[in-house]
Amino acid sequence: MKVALVYDRLNKMGGAERVLLALHKLFPQAPLYTSVYDKKKAPWANVFKVKTSFLQDFPLSTHHEIYAVLMPFAFESFNFDEYDLVISVTSEAAKGIITKPKTRHICYCLTPTRYLWSGYEEYFKNPFLKLISKPLVFGLRFWDKIAAQRPDVYIAISKEVQSRIKKYYSKDSFVVYPPVLSLGLPQELKSKNKDYFLIVSRLVAYKKIDLAIEAFNELKLPLKIIGKGAGKNRLKAMAGPTIEFLDYLTDKELVEYYSECRALIFPGLEDFGLTILEAQSFGKPVIAFKAGGALETIAEKKTGIFFDKQDVKSLINAIKQFESLKIDPKDCREQAQKFSFEQFKTNFMKRIEDLSR
Questions:
Q1: Which of 56, 208, 222, 321 has the highest Cβ tally under 10 A?
Q2: What is the Cα–Cα distance from 338 to 193, expressed in whole angstroms?
Q3: What is the mean pLDDT of residues 237-252?
Q4: Nearest Cα residue to 36 out of 16, 4, 64, 17
């Protein structure tokens, strides 16, 4: 089969981008279509033959929020007539590509567009912004519902996302968990605990990093936060002397921080949460909010611990409970191995074979 990949935009590195790299391993010759591509912010994408939309030539094209209303036109402008199969990896507009009947379209859905549906109240907290954006949101929701009918098959990255696809798009889907890819942990490097806890995340509001900062300020425990995002300056202003910020690191550098932390802190409600599995692959437990994808990737009190409410008190209680908990690193590694690349490959290819029959 001749295969193409489609993704919303190439301007960052995170869990969704690691999903793309996993698909690249399955389809190394497949080009990658996207709205805009920032080579400086996404150097990892140089393994792909990237094809961008007309938005690439627009001023400030890398500030994608400005052009949200144009994203539908960008993806509808692509032509996929030469392909047998197109796989869209998306949390926004990439599912809206138009294909002819001979070209099959699988949508590997990261989540239905967050700012339109499940995260609408979070994104539009400001009453004035909410008011003036209503016509735009209404129009985008109308298009998103139409676009959601275009894929032949939906594959969800988790049961959490599967339920959202059903709720917002009225579509059935299969679950194929993303794989945890090796970050290049040398066999001779043994995990060792230093005193700090770790967060690896984009620094945006719905990740709830502020919650972790408040908790660690109160506990006066060391916390290292690795990531970039629009909220970085605000979060740094909140942080006390025991909290350190680092930009996104190379995988080699990230290995060191994963292998030496006490535990990963995961305060947000996530669609899946690949960093949870990355931490466990290093034998490290996770302290996570009890919701979303975390429920599918953590074995409670065996590879991690949950807190029930997204508030400071609940997180602090979980951290204190964690201090007295004995977790075997071997259990964490075995949990991560359930989400191996080979398992992903088997499950994903089965869906393609079923579609081809």
A1: 208
A2: 24
A3: 91
A4: 64
Backbone torsions φ then ψ of 78, nearest 5 degrees: -75, 150
| Amino acid at residue number 275 | T
pLDDT of residue 302: 97
Model confidence at 355, pLDDT cuts 50, 70, 90, reads confident
Q: What is the pLDDT of residues 313-324, one digit of tens each?
A: 999 999 999 999
Query: What is the C-alpha separation between 90 and 96, in angstroms, rounded?
Result: 10
Token code pair at residue 155: 């594959």
Beta bridge partners of 10: 37
Q: What is the pTM of this model?
A: 0.89
SS (H, E, C) 199-266: EECCCCHHHCHHHHHHHHHHHCCCEEEECCCCCHHHHHHHCCCCEEEECCCCHHHHHHHHHHCCCEEE
Amino acid at 49: K
80 to 74, 77, 83: CA distances (angstroms): 14, 10, 6
Quickly tell me which residue has 């997204």 as its tokens.
310
Only one residue has tokens 């990740």, namely 207
Q: Which of 271, 270, 278 is nearest to 288 (CA)?
A: 270
Domains and CATH numbers, the chain: 3-179+340-356 (3.40.50.2000), 197-337 (3.40.50.2000)
Crossing angle of helices 329-337 and 274-281, in 10° steps, is: 130
pLDDT tens digits along 73-97: 999 999 999 999 999 999 999 999 9
Beta bridge partners, 264, equal: 198, 286
Identify whether the C-beta of residue 292 lies closer than 8 Å to the C-beta of residue 276. Answer: no
Residue 85 near residue 1, CB atoms below 8 Å? yes
Instruction: Taking residues 217-238, report their average pLDDT.
Output: 95
Is residue 125 helix, strand or coil?
coil
Write out the E strands in 8-152: 32-34, 50-52, 85-90, 104-109
